[in-house]
Amino acid sequence: MKITTTEKYTLLKPTNNSLGEFQVNLEKELSKFEGAHLILDFSEKINTKIEELLLFLSLSSQHKENGTSFVIISKGINIDEIPDELNVVPTITEAIDIIEMDAIERDLGF
What we know:
The protein contains four helices and five strands. It has helices at about 20-30, 50-55, 55-65, 90-110, and strands at about 1-5, 10-15, 40, 70-75, 85-90.
């Protein structure tokens, strides 16, 4: 897993092709990212399936409950097929925008 930390978020990129394996490793190391806004970058992974993204649904819900954002970057996904609890966007710019919008919502008490 490649980790890039900025002032606003932590970007995680898988170093292998298995999102299932990445998800298991992320859950093991999740305590390292406590309090961080996470962006998972799967943009380089071709033919990502919705079922693979749904593996991260519980992690997304857990982060929202803890007051942090959780966004996945993945291209070629039909957003209408993704549950509302999971933020999936095609670019890093949109992922950062989601984090900023989540922060505004939290400030307003939503």
